[in-house]
UniProtKB/TrEMBL annotation:
Residues 219-339 form the CusB-like barrel-sandwich hybrid domain. This is Efflux RND transporter periplasmic adaptor subunit. Residues 345-420 form the CusB-like beta-barrel domain. One of its GO terms (biological process) is copper ion export.
Length: 512
């Protein structure tokens, strides 16, 4: 039936049968699991849930992400000296170890990833439900040191960072909350405490002042007769003059008549020895009262001729601060020709707060600094305290009088002013850096025992030189926290937690 093609058909049938015979053999070979290879030693973990580990190709049972290889050494974000493998916890704070190269990033994510679901808690302990903390009710609560809004009635761990919750004893008063902080955590936070002391505070104010003319050294130049300015000896405001320099020359018929009367009295002195001296005295006094210089009167006696253009000279050194006339102008006694100021001594007007007005008295020391002019701590004295407050700023003005070396201080300049008042002794003092100021009240954190801290409200008095007077709330010898109670992002959260605990408000933070 097959004929000559029989061998070919047998060959074709054999080729079709061979794959079918090979199939059972291939199917019977057991498939080796991925984790059975001895060379697969590298661990894999979920990028979002570090506690979920496995092998290559596995998925995270929580977020279904593929596991990624883990190559880095793991360390505690809070205690970098504590290292280990993935999934290990820190023996100090119980936080999960994170890759060393990503410690800061992981710590930031753990501290701020408040949107994580409650089901993602990688802890064997029960999930902690945030509860409002009511300090007035008394009892014990457990709070996360890094996330104060995580509060529990029972011991446990924080669902965010995995740290053990710390016991917080709530007193019967809203003014006192006992917080336990272990020694290791205190060292990690860099906490520093200082003792409340008794001491002395000097009433001291560092403020700003404005330089003004010394009004006692201000000269208003007037001519005491009517006349015309024949020659002006100064050109403009700001010109410097010395004592004896010419200010102006005046032609005045009244002043010429007074000179003539003086010459007549001088002639009568020779003929009438009884009345002559009195007439001479009155004529000379008239010239002096009209403003004629004594040297000009002596010149008049020697020459016997009246001056038609009478010169007027500067009576002191200073600067022209105001000039109201020009050559040829007619003036009267009411006309202020110019204003001359002396800058050898100046006034500095400083402002202090209304509640500080009782700190100072006239005659107390002050120091003025103008760093731009190279003048530092010029010594002066308070010579006047103004009786009225500024209606806008509600500040009190204090006047300081001081010498002006080389005339460098110019009116209108701003300077730094240090005012030294009297001392208050026997005060209870704390460093100002220990204060937690909320705007409505002031609080401090007091170390009651080695690991116990209490929040206390205090009433403050005077604050100066980095110290605050405590009127009530603290006693000398108590120890207050001055540094380290607020660190990085926990600074604001811990501060807010203390405020919430002391006020009894129920803030549970973000939803977990």
């Amino acid at each position: 039936m097959f004929g000559d093609n029989c061998p070919a058909r047998w060959l074709l049938a054999l080729m079709l049968a061979l794959p079918m015979l090979a199939l059972p053999t291939h199917a019977q070979q057991p498939s080796e699991p991925a984790h059975a290879h001895p060379e697969q030693a590298q661990p894999y973990a979920c990028p979002m849930h570090l506690d979920q580990t496995g092998q290559q190709g596995d998925r995270c049972p929580k977020c279904k992400m593929f596991l990624t290889p883990v190559d880095a050494t793991y360390a505690c974000p809070m205690h970098p000296e504590q290292t280990g493998a993935i999934g290990d916890r820190c023996p100090i704070c119980n936080m999960y170890l994170a890759p060393e190269e990503d410690e800061e990033e992981v710590a930031s994510q753990e501290g701020h990833n408040h949107g994580a679901e409650a089901g993602t808690q990688p802890l064997s302990s029960p999930a902690v439900k945030p509860n409002p903390l009511q300090p007035g009710s008394g009892g014990v609560k457990y709070v996360c040191p890094m996330h104060p809004h995580i509060v529990s009635d029972e011991p446990g761990t924080c669902p965010i960072c995995g740290m053990d919750l710390e016991k917080v004893e709530l007193g019967t008063s809203t003014e006192e909350v006992v917080v336990g902080v272990p020694g290791g955590m205190q060292q990690a936070l860099g906490m520093r405490v200082e003792s409340v002391q008794q001491g002395t505070l000097w009433r001291y104010i560092d403020t700003i002042g404005t330089v003004e003319y010394d009004q006692d050294a201000l000269s208003h130049i007037h001519a005491r007769v009517s006349g015309w300015i024949e020659k002006l000896g100064v050109a403009s405001v700001g010109d410097q003059v010395k004592q004896g320099d010419l200010l102006f020359e005046l032609y005045s018929p009244e002043l010429i008549n007074a000179q003539d009367d003086y010459l007549l009295a001088l002639d009568s002195l020779k003929s009438d020895t009884i009345r002559g001296p009195e007439l001479m005295r009155k004529a000379r006094l008239r010239l002096e009262l009209l403003g004629m210089d004594s040297r000009l009167i002596q010149q008049l006696e020697r020459s016997g001729k009246s001056l038609y253009r009478v010169p007027f000279y500067a009576q002191q050194d200073g600067y022209i601060s105001q000039l109201n006339v020009r050559d040829g102008m007619y003036i009267q006694p009411a006309t202020e020709v110019m204003k001359l100021v002396n800058l050898d001594n100046v006034w500095v007007i400083a402002e202090v707060f209304e509640n500080q007005q009782g700190w100072f008295n006239e005659g107390q020391d002050a120091a003025v600094t103008a760093s731009a002019l190279g003048l530092f701590e010029l010594e002066g004295q308070i010579d006047y305290i103004y009786p009225e407050l500024d209606p806008v700023t509600r500040a009190m003005q204090v006047r300081v009088s001081l010498a002006n070396p080389e005339g460098k201080l110019r009116p209108g300049s701003l300077v730094d002013v240090e005012l030294y008042g009297t001392a208050k002794r026997g005060l209870t003092l704390v460093p100002t850096e220990a204060l937690i100021q909320t705007g409505r009240s002031n609080r401090v954190v007091v170390q009651r025992a080695d690991t116990e801290f209490v929040v206390k409200e205090v009433t403050l008095g005077m604050i100066a030189q980095g110290k605050a007077e405590v009127l009530s709330g603290l006693e000398p010898g108590e120890r207050v926290v001055v540094s380290g109670q607020f660190l990085l992002d926990s600074e604001a959260s811990l501060k807010g937690s203390l405020m919430r605990m002391s006020s009894g408000s129920a803030h549970s933070g973000h939803s977990h």
